Amino acid sequence: MKDYLKHHEWEIIEEGFDPHLNKISESVFSIGNGRMGQRANFEEEYSGDTLKGSYVAGVYYPDKTRVGWWKNGYPEYFAKVLNAPSWIGIHISVDGHKLDLAKCKVEDFKRVLDMRTGLLTRSFAATLSDGKKLRVLSKRFCSMANGEVGAIRYAFTPLNFSGKITLSLYVDADVVNKDSNYDEKFWEEVSKEASPGRALVVAQTKKTFFHVATAMKFQITTHGKIVTVDRINIEQREKFAGNVFQIDVEEGKETIIYKYAAVLSSENHPKEKIAAQANHVLDDAFAKGFDKLFDEHAKVWEHKWEECDITIEGDIAAQQGIRFNIFQLTQTYTGEDERLNIGPKGFTGEKYGGSTYWDTEAYCLPFYLGTSEQKVSRNLLVYRHKHLARAIENAQKLGFKDGAALYPMVTMNGEECHNEWEITFEEIHRNGAIAFAIFDYIRYTGDEDYLADHGLEVLIGISRFWAQRVNWSADKNKYVMLGVTGPNEYENNVNNNWYTNYIATWTLKYTQEAISLVKKKHGKRFEVIADVVRLKEKEETSKWADIVEKMYFPHDPKRDVYLQQDNFLDKELLRVSDLKQEDRPLNQKWSWDRILRSCFIKQADVLQGIYLFEDDFSIETIRKNFDFYEPMTVHESSLSPCVHVILASKLGYKAKAYELYLRTARLDLDDYNNDTEDGCHITSMAGTWMSVVKGFGGMKVKEGKLHFNPFMPDQWKSYSFRIEFRNRVIKVKVSNEGVTTKLESGEPLEIVLKDEAVMLS
Ligand code: BGC
């Protein structure tokens, strides 16, 4: 754990420059706007340790994955999010001496991310190798008002000299990925242009042929007056275009460079027009200027915070932590584009390939349901609907038929792009999360028509998969599901993972209900769907009903707990508290074989099911299972603690709930897992939000009504959150004095507070 960032309610602050922490800060201070994102790399040259990262949503490369141990059914590639052309570069040198913080003496270094306005600021004084000293103050943002625009205000002041400074401002598509296998470069130049004051490069990705146009235009001022530069040299080489020139500077006088960037992708523009359109977007941004662009951007943030802020009184670290999580989630996915999704690292790093996992449905959806307009979460569902045909193909490759759909474990475009057999073929519970998300969305929004629009087709595909994936066990006289990996990836190829069996059975039940509902409300549409998916309604639904009735669920009658899988009790049952500190984290210290044979659980598994379907279980059942499994859980997935916070809160285990909450809230700010330098844990950030709202706040939707059952963590004075619910905004404040609920906008609504009906008007 590191503790170098200052605590502040709205800002993330780093004071002093420590090159060893630079990559962590580059992740934490990342900015984005749903369409593009940028790690907190420096504008000037930096020869020290850095992970360069500029990202454009939806742009990926299908990396080669054929290996000697190839197994039929493996996908052909692993998608990787690409480090995209860079738009931030502003290189400075004085008399041949470069401004490079790895080589200069650096003083007064400060990096601040203002989460309220999405503005990254950096300031420092640097002494170059010949003793000349400069003060720099840079500000930049990726516009939330126009997702294709970024802007930088880079101010510098010579502190002990006057003379000429050489500047190079450019766009650069000659970039690499850090995890690039085979040292390959993934971008090729399509075209470039540069003229005094501006430059543009259009580059295309190999194999996927995405075009990205990156353009920049700048203006320089001193004392509010525009500086006209006498001679600008055009600097061009492969995949690179820019301007190099000298300007006169005077000791003590500030010069400001305004650099504007337009980043356009062929996902949104025709390839043949992309250069012209990038220039157009750029000219518009330039005409508005930095301050106006920033005002527009900050207004969007202001509105976002009105929708989704959580306040915590009495604990600044917790306040900063929750805002940081909300900030990152909000700048990663805006819900405007149904083709996009949320990679586990968002726009902050390359790991996990930037692709979509079950994390979206199981963890992120509740956040967007509670904090954004309905369209945002609906688009997350539509994304999977659009991938249905591919999920059916994916299942076919594994031998399933008749429209059975297996959604990928990891995907960019609907195709599976993950190949570890125990996950690709066996971690099939992801299909359940996608079905559950449809239910969760409808339960929350009341938008039942979604079933007729898209949801039912997805449910039928998934139910068909489950119906073919189970088999009848003559021995048990039950249906069983063999050879799976549950959410706990520390066990593979197990039989009858309780969670998977439960969510599969639930899907089969829910799909039958969905069929009845669509038939009743949208008879004609039902006929169309039935025809398109070739539903043999009677035959298929009676098979599903039979499975629902006769599914096998492993259970230990002695302890009265559900068993994670058939042989769980054969394991030596130890507690995490029995482990030595030097054995943690297990995934770095133990062999995989030892992990698989141990009882230790990576993340919520049985408890994941109990959390999703909590109303199916008595409080005593929840308690017994929690008391049995939580002590064996190492929480080595960042997705784990939040589920336990929610259940611990329900059980009244206040201290446990708070302890686990702390593990999620500042995971990246304090680099708990020693891996923030790879990027932030974006999808688990939604778990932090859930911990407060669903855990401490006890929020859930039951029979169309919003319920709250809040408690106060002892460490806080109060906390409050806002919830979007069916065209209303509701504010809940919890303090030692009690709970207040307020309808901030929308029609009157009856809610249930601590089991009592309350009318909000
Ligand atoms: C977890 C998975 C998760 C993935 C991406 C893994 O460590 O075990 O449940 O989907 O990370 O976040």
UniProtKB/TrEMBL annotation:
<dbReference type="InterPro" id="IPR008928">
    <property type="entry name" value="6-hairpin_glycosidase_sf"/>
</dbReference>
<dbReference type="Pfam" id="PF03636">
    <property type="entry name" value="Glyco_hydro_65N"/>
</dbReference>
<dbReference type="InterPro" id="IPR011013">
    <property type="entry name" value="Gal_mutarotase_sf_dom"/>
</dbReference>
<dbReference type="InterPro" id="IPR005195">
    <property type="entry name" value="Glyco_hydro_65_M"/>
</dbReference>
<feature type="binding site">
    <location>
        <begin position="358"/>
        <end position="359"/>
    </location>
    <ligand>
        <name>substrate</name>
    </ligand>
</feature>
<dbReference type="InterPro" id="IPR005196">
    <property type="entry name" value="Glyco_hydro_65_N"/>
</dbReference>
<dbReference type="GO" id="GO:0016757">
    <property type="term" value="F:glycosyltransferase activity"/>
</dbReference>
<feature type="domain" description="Glycoside hydrolase family 65 C-terminal">
    <location>
        <begin position="699"/>
        <end position="758"/>
    </location>
</feature>
<dbReference type="GO" id="GO:0004553">
    <property type="term" value="F:hydrolase activity, hydrolyzing O-glycosyl compounds"/>
</dbReference>
<dbReference type="InterPro" id="IPR037018">
    <property type="entry name" value="GH65_N"/>
</dbReference>
<protein>
    <submittedName>
        <fullName>Glycoside hydrolase family 65 protein</fullName>
    </submittedName>
</protein>
<comment type="similarity">
    <text>Belongs to the glycosyl hydrolase 65 family.</text>
</comment>
<feature type="domain" description="Glycoside hydrolase family 65 central catalytic">
    <location>
        <begin position="323"/>
        <end position="690"/>
    </location>
</feature>
<feature type="active site" description="Proton donor">
    <location>
        <position position="489"/>
    </location>
</feature>
<dbReference type="InterPro" id="IPR012341">
    <property type="entry name" value="6hp_glycosidase-like_sf"/>
</dbReference>
<keyword id="KW-0378">Hydrolase</keyword>
<dbReference type="Pfam" id="PF03632">
    <property type="entry name" value="Glyco_hydro_65m"/>
</dbReference>
<dbReference type="InterPro" id="IPR005194">
    <property type="entry name" value="Glyco_hydro_65_C"/>
</dbReference>
<dbReference type="GO" id="GO:0030246">
    <property type="term" value="F:carbohydrate binding"/>
</dbReference>
<dbReference type="GO" id="GO:0005975">
    <property type="term" value="P:carbohydrate metabolic process"/>
</dbReference>
<dbReference type="InterPro" id="IPR017045">
    <property type="entry name" value="Malt_Pase/Glycosyl_Hdrlase"/>
</dbReference>
<feature type="domain" description="Glycoside hydrolase family 65 N-terminal">
    <location>
        <begin position="13"/>
        <end position="266"/>
    </location>
</feature>
<feature type="binding site">
    <location>
        <begin position="602"/>
        <end position="603"/>
    </location>
    <ligand>
        <name>substrate</name>
    </ligand>
</feature>
<dbReference type="Pfam" id="PF03633">
    <property type="entry name" value="Glyco_hydro_65C"/>
</dbReference>
